Amino acid sequence: MKIMISKLLMREFRKYEKGEKDKITLLDNIERKQPTSGVKWTPVKFINKMIDDINFFYENEFKEEAKHPIQQISLLSEVETFEENKNMYIGEVRDEANEVWADFVIANADKFGNTLITQQLMSDLIEKIAVDINYIFSSSPKKFVYLTFYIDSSPGDTLPKTGKSVLSSVKTLGYKIVEMFPSKKNKLAAPYMSTTELIRDISEDYTASKRKSSLSLFTDDLTNDTLKLTIDGAVGQHSKYYSLYLLAYYRLKTPRLIFELEENIPSDLKKIERIFNTGQHSPKLKDAEILEENFQPYVVSDIPEGKGVNLIYYGAPGSGKSYRVNQKYNSKNSKRITFYPDYDYNDFVGGLKPVKEPEKTMEYKFVSGPLVDIIISAINNPLENFYLIIEELNRANAPSVFGDTFQLLDRDKNTGISTFSIFNSSVGEYIDNAVSVPSDFKDTGIVFPGNLSIIATLNPADQMVFSLDSAFQRRWQMVYVPIDWTEENVVEGPVEGFEGLTWKKVGKTLNIVLSENGIEEDSLLGQYYITDEEIKDIDLISSKLIGYLWNDVLKYQKDTIFKTKTLSQTIKKFKSHGYKSIFQPDIVEMFSEE
Question: 236: which residues sit within 8 A by CB, 6+ positions away?
Answer without folding.
Answer: none
